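User: Teach me something about this protein's shape.
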Amino acid sequence: MSCQATGDDNDSVSLESRYRDLQRDIEAAHRNIDEISNDGYYTGPEEGLRVVDWRAWRAAKIALTLARDYRSHYAMSRVYPSPRELAIENEIFDRAAADE
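Assistant: First, the predicted structure itself:
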């Protein structure tokens, strides 16, 4: 009987690290947006909304890429997305690329 990987290989550790980076990035975005939204001197709520927009598309792209890489690494299948889900994913990648 063969054993399944425990997740201690380099690729697994890298995936976990990328997941933690995403968590920290989202937490930092929340703090950044809060600071910008409450700064009425130079920026204010309008700039906060622009930052939300940019950071949300970026985080969504990273999350989708990470999920794809997890599925690939652990040989997990994915239920084929509906046309609407596929359109949303494509929009996420397009918008994130436009802001890079």
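Now, about its shape. Residues 45-73 form the longest helix (29 residues). The chain has three helices and no strands. If you'd like, I can walk through any region in more detail.
User: That's plenty for now, thanks!
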